[in-house]
Design brief:
The chain is about 45% helix and about 25% strand. With about 270 residues, it is α+β, with helices and mostly antiparallel strands. A hairpin with a 2-residue loop joins strand 4 and strand 5.
């Protein structure tokens, strides 16, 4: 007869493989030494996987656990949507405030925006200072990634406003966020060295998304997107033409737009009201 402890270990291992890990899950114990040692190992593995997923994209860790394939340097070209964010005047805030509070409040801000990005199918690639870089359609495929990215940015702005209202009540400066969004082909994969790897996207698509974000300051906007984004979802979101720019390193001029909100379709509105 299979001991209950062995059955519990098998169930727990399958949960880890499916990335269904309970934070309050206890360690499986047994009077049989070998099973008890195995229970300690499974508990350690669960903690390592959970911690690892806090430092690299969670969906990437999930894929590694599910497939059992070790990460290797290299990548492939694929169509992605890239988001860059930045907090206006963050350096000034950080220099004047208590360092510990800066870390706590900024972590709170990152947590709020990350939750929204992930809920809309995005992957947070990295945090750089007060900035966020996020990717759609990698590592998990998403055929509607442009629309999901646009919806995520609008939701991020709403969450940011709610958080700023809380900051104001607490006497903390607001974090006014600027967003830059572009879609196109990029090289996506794992770069680095054999002992230090990073999953990311590289190429002109990433560079343009990064350049759109700071342009918000010049045009008095919060969300700037490229024409490539606007063309893909023009019927589902509201855009305002802003300008035509010629970024350094790009051969052709690029039209940029302000993302204003989601489009309201009369037919859908009529069906809901009826």
């Amino acid at each position: 007869v299979r001991p209950r402890s062995m059955t519990a270990l098998a169930v727990e291992t399958e949960r880890i493989q499916r990335f269904e890990m309970q934070e309050d899950a206890g360690r499986v114990r047994s009077v049989i030494r070998e099973i008890d040692v195995l229970g300690r190992s499974v508990s350690t593995m669960r903690a390592v996987v959970r911690t690892f997923s806090s430092f690299v994209p969670k969906r990437l860790v999930q894929q590694l656990v599910e497939t059992g394939i070790a990460p290797r340097l290299g990548g492939s070209r694929r169509d992605v949507t890239i988001l860059f964010t930045d907090i206006q005047g963050f350096t000034n805030i950080a220099e004047k405030a208590d360092p510990e509070q800066v870390l706590l409040q900024t972590s709170r801000y990152f947590a709020a925006l990350t939750e929204v990005i992930m809920a809309h199918g995005g992957t947070v690639d990295k945090f750089v200072g007060d900035a966020i870089m996020a990717i759609w359609n990698a590592p998990t495929e998403d055929a509607d990634h442009v629309a999901h990215a646009c919806a995520a940015v609008l939701a991020c702005r709403n969450v940011n406003q709610e958080l700023n209202a809380a900051f104001e009540r607490e006497g903390w400066p607001e974090y006014k966020t600027r967003f830059g969004l572009h879609t196109g082909e990029a090289v996506v994969g794992i770069i680095g060295s054999s002992d230090r790897m990073s999953y990311t996207a590289l190429g002109a698509t990433v560079n343009l998304a990064a350049r759109l974000e700071p342009l918000n300051k010049e045009y008095g906007t919060d969300i700037l997107v490229s024409e490539a984004v606007q063309q893909r979802v023009a019927e589902r979101f509201l855009f305002r033409p802003v300008d035509t720019i010629k970024p350094r390193g790009f051969g052709s001029p690029i039209r940029i737009f302000e993302l204003r909100g989601e489009a309201i379709h009369p037919t859908a509105s009529h069906m809901q009201s009826g």
